[in-house]
Fold each of these.
Amino acid sequence: MPLRRLQAEQKKFDRTFLSSLNFDEAGIEINRLTLIFHKLCDDNYQLTREYFRDFLSTIFDLNDETIVERLFILTGQGEKTLSLKQFLSAINLLLYASIEEQIKFIFRVYDVSADGNLQREELFTFLRKDLPIMNEKEDADLILHEFITLIFKKFDKDHDGVISFDDYYRTCQENPTLIQCFGQVLPRLFRKHIVKSMLNGHISIISKKEKYIK
């Protein structure tokens, strides 16, 4: 896609949106991400679920299908595709979110029912796939339910049977290592450094259906 097209796309962004991003002031990261987006987008300049999932897996090493689907839903606000603006917002969050922003966003990812509380059933969905393969499904489910009971003892501060955002926030503030204990939502620190280096250095975009560089 011609550079003029990319510049026209970026000129549509208002100052409020741009000020909400934490990319480099020179605009190198936004320009490179825009190039990636337009390499992957469809004829309507929208990014499909398939290519978003592939991008997160290849670049950020995020491979949990349930969580990646939640990322797509929250980023696209329920739409079937992502715009360039939504894509940039998502990458900005993955790379530059503060601890406060991380806690708020990760909780939203886990809160599938969007009722402001984490239910046992929601945790079961996220944690079930992480159990070792066992001969008896009943045994695995029993172990998982016992594990979730232990988690609730840690997180459920007011003992009301659900993990509210306040419960989750307070627990994560006390022990930041628990922020992603129900599944990896954000990339690991070393992966963030790699991606930032790529965006500020050299990156190869081969074709729409092929992987990117390491």
Amino acid sequence: MDTDSAAVNEDEKQHFHVLAVDDSYIDRKVLEKLLTVSSYQVTCVDSGDKALEYLGLVDIEENEYDSSSSQQISSSSKSSQQEVSKVNLIMTDYSMPGISGYDLLKRIKVGSPNRASFVCDSTWKDVPVVVMSSENVPSRINMCLEGGAEEFLLKPVKLSDLRKLHSHLLNTITDPCVENAICDVIESANNTNKEESEIDKNCSNTNKRKATASDLSDRRPRGLPVS
């Protein structure tokens, strides 16, 4: 690989930044591992509140902090708002204490219910949100999808599930060079999957032939006993 290609691939990895939100330590680590293997940059938080703080969506006026605490939150929110442009995808668990995954989705897509108006900052409104749950509840799934979620994934999340998210991530990339590089990577991954499927198919056919040959051998008439 030449230097230019390496630089583009590195740029691509930096652009694919996922914010993962889950109160379960095990599920969070599994998701982090899958995303890292898929060459995504990952930031993990364990609650909806921390996700809102990271994104700079904390409403200071709705919390009863003293002036020093408010100043710290305000400073944190400003720095977080600078980070939000680097987030290409948000993956959140549905069932969490406090702010649920659905609440987080609504805050991102609509705004805070405690504000006078539901005006949403377009900077993070367009960031794709994927909701995850271990419970297959159709009404819950429909509610999230109608609320603006791009996908609803059932746990445990698998590597194949992450491949479905490429198209959503592409919509967040504005640099044509990076987008082309990502398309090349996706195409290469798809070709690899086809090759692996073909190898599995060939191995399966070989095993079938062996099994058939063995079966035929067992069915051949035995030699007559010597009198």
Amino acid sequence: MAVHRSLVVFAIIAAIASATSFATEFIVGGDKGWDLGVDYLKWPKDKQFFVGDTLVFHYEAGYHNVYKVNGTDYQNCNVPTNRSLGSFTGNDTITLATSGNKWYICGISGHCQGGQRLQITVLESAPISAPSAAPILCAKVTIFQILLGIILVL
């Protein structure tokens, strides 16, 4: 009986895991990182960004920084006067918490104008791709059904 319960619990956990999408970590600028001379208009073109993904900005601290700005400030390279809106460590991670357009600039004088700025579009959620019919069925299972199954097994 204990083995049967363990198998059912394992099956439920496997079903939940197969229906879950995993976030992606993007190193901004790839191997070159967040630096002058990188084409940040081209870099995001072959990527899709989803809520929950993260952007990692690698750069030499003190020589660059990262500010999240609005579209107007991005276009005009306006650096916020509030330093608390910036990141300065050289290894900054930003989680994409909401969908929509996002804009980032380097606040060092002349860097944004020199092309060190990034604009991306974040989508609500990644599509679920299923290699077989089983994950599709699992994706339709509600949390209530899962909890009910666990209670009935125990």
Amino acid sequence: MVGRMPTFIGILSRKSVEQFKPDPYLATIVNCMLWVFYGLPFVHPDTILVATINGVGLAIELIYTIIFFIYAEKKGRMKAAAWIAIEVVFMAIVVALTMTMFHSTTKRSNVVGVLCVIFGLIMYISPLTIMGKVITTQSIKYMPFYLSLATFANGVVWTIYALMPVDPYIIIPNGLGAISGAVQLILYAYYSRFTPKHHDDGGDDDEMKPNSADLQMVAAPSV
């Protein structure tokens, strides 16, 4: 999440969101909310670290979203506001149903865990788009190295954490996340040979740069 900061520093300096789309951040918000709920003692005991880290992640994503609201056009603000409202309602329904229909932490953690896996997989699968673009263009300019490294490291660390004791709901999305990050790093290493560090033809570098929405698709969820 911190790896996304350069995008928002650019927005602040330009005072415009330009081509930026908030979709990945809005998706991360609901993902973090689910993991925070999953990590609470009355849902899944002894996983308070999951709730704490994703609580921080949620705060960061909300800050990003606020920045978007400040500099986006009216249409963009309305779209983001609508999605946030939907996510809040969705979470309220999940919390209400989980707490009223299931009366043991085992059942609660199973239900919320499945939802976390589904949303986690969606977020980890999303980089397939950018990886395809790297292969097609044979250019790593479409895949920031540090975000790929963060995806890999995040997946590995949380997979190891989930082994003590075994928690399949954390292992499944983060294990795939580690694989996704590893593939991104392999692609980066391979196609870096074909991507010149400097353009000598005097062309417009903007033609080689991905838009901000593409960059965000490489980002990984907190857990």
